[in-house]
DNA sequence: GTATCCAAACTTGGATACAAGTATTGACTT
DNA sequence: AAGTCAATACTTGTATCCAAGTTTGGATAC
């Protein structure tokens, strides 16, 4: 009875807490790439032993967010040009496939879902609510996957997006680009609703490529956060 | 001096050994889905403490190969219909993008690389060397990624392929289908060399879809290895 | 003043001991 | 004989201790 209710919260280990904390610190760039972190320090900070911290480190290591160097030190992983390239290729490939599926399966309800995302996004921009704007961008891309009946595609997009989003925090003048992004969404929605897969993919790829020069600029301005070669 | 030489082998932890061992056991289906494995047992088997085994378990858990249930037991993860669908969608998406790139960038050397793979594969089939046949299939898809100048794409394909390959070990009559697969490869190579991206993608997708009925059959014949719902 | 070398402090890797929860098996009661 | 309950064995989670290697800083020799 009550066990069923207590189980979910009981499942949350110390490891989960620490891993989630570090994940947020790193992906929000409060912990910068190259920063050294110590199992002992984090353990003391949370008032636990090193063991759960160890497990949390292992989890973040498998997410490629930290670099554990045996007997040496553990540090927040720097950006890798190759990793970014791979991530962007994966996301573009998945997004293209999802767009084709969406153009194929879009119905009236789906079209309305896209339009409603865009309208809310225009509202958020007008109100300068940039947090909501980002969340709605999220929703738009998720809607595409749902319309295409490939909801799992968004899991991949989300994972790849988060990798690059950490990087983009370093960028400037994001607000100026938002109207452009909304126009992209409008174009994508139009193509999907028209069932024109190729136009949807073309618009989608153009949308994604807008990040390229931003990333290139960050790579120059924040070279210290980039690894020299892949380790 | 000698330190530099000893470091690479020193980097190999016990954790790596255990994780690799378990990985091979699971992906080769020597350890069947649902089999319960214990940290203590594996530790005794390797003559080490539970600590490195724990770390190895965490690594395999993040690869979704095992399911660690706190205080209960750890077992080899069963197949999930949803996970298979997702994996196949991801691979198809990446492969389609790689094929387009390959058709765009293929030169004489690239064409020769593809033809040589196919020739060797025909030889392997004639000699009934099925191990070599599988390895060459691997090489063919890697060659496509290299020709398309997206080598990292193969890392994704490889990861997704391994997930499904474990499943396909349960299938039967793989040899009968090999000539069909070679003809697919020939068609793909022809389209790539001709620079016809859409034909290459079409042939590639047809190639991948040959697994669909095999998987459907396995799902019926080996229902015990499939999870009821996603956990 | 500079370079070299050694020692101490800090890092993670691994082993052991204990804690907490679950499943199973046995005895006991009905 | 069947069902219930409790004890026991087994699971993973956490804490602590020791081992091994790297780095860093200071002392010493030149």
Plain-language structure description:
The structure is a homodimer of 231-residue chains. Chain A is built from 11 helices and 3 strands, in the order ααβααββααααααα. Chain A is mainly alpha-helical. Chain A has 2 domains: 75 residues, Orthogonal Bundle (Arc Repressor Mutant, subunit A); 145 residues, Four Helix Bundle (Hemerythrin (Met), subunit A) (Up-down Bundle), CATH 1.20.120.530. In chain A, strands 1-3-2 form a 3-stranded antiparallel beta sheet. In chain A, a hairpin with a 3-residue loop joins strand 2 and strand 3. Chain A is elongated, with a radius of gyration of 20 Å. The relative contact order of chain A is 0.12. The N terminus of chain A is likely disordered. The interface between A and B is medium-sized, with 25 and 25 residues. The structure holds a DNA duplex (30 and 30 nucleotides).
Describe this structure in a few short sentences.
Chains A, B: Keywords: DNA-binding, Transcription, Transcription regulation. The first copy, chain A, has eleven helices and three strands; from the N terminus they run ααβααββααααααα.
Strand % of chain A is under 5%
User: Mind telling me the CATH class of the largest domain in chain A?
Assistant: Mainly Alpha
Total count of strands of chain A: 3
Query: How far apart, in Å, are the first and last alpha carbons of chain A?
Result: 50 Å
Strands side by side in the biggest sheet of chain A: 1-3-2
The CATH architecture classification of the largest domain in chain A is: Up-down Bundle
Radius of gyration of chain A equals 20 Å
Oligomer: homodimer
Helix percentage of chain A: over 70%
Low-confidence stretches of chain A: 1-10
User: For the record, what is the CATH homologous superfamily label of the largest domain in chain A?
Assistant: GntR ligand-binding domain-like
Largest sheet of chain A: 3 strands, antiparallel
Order of helices and strands of chain A: HHEHHEEHHHHHHH
Number of domains of chain A: 2
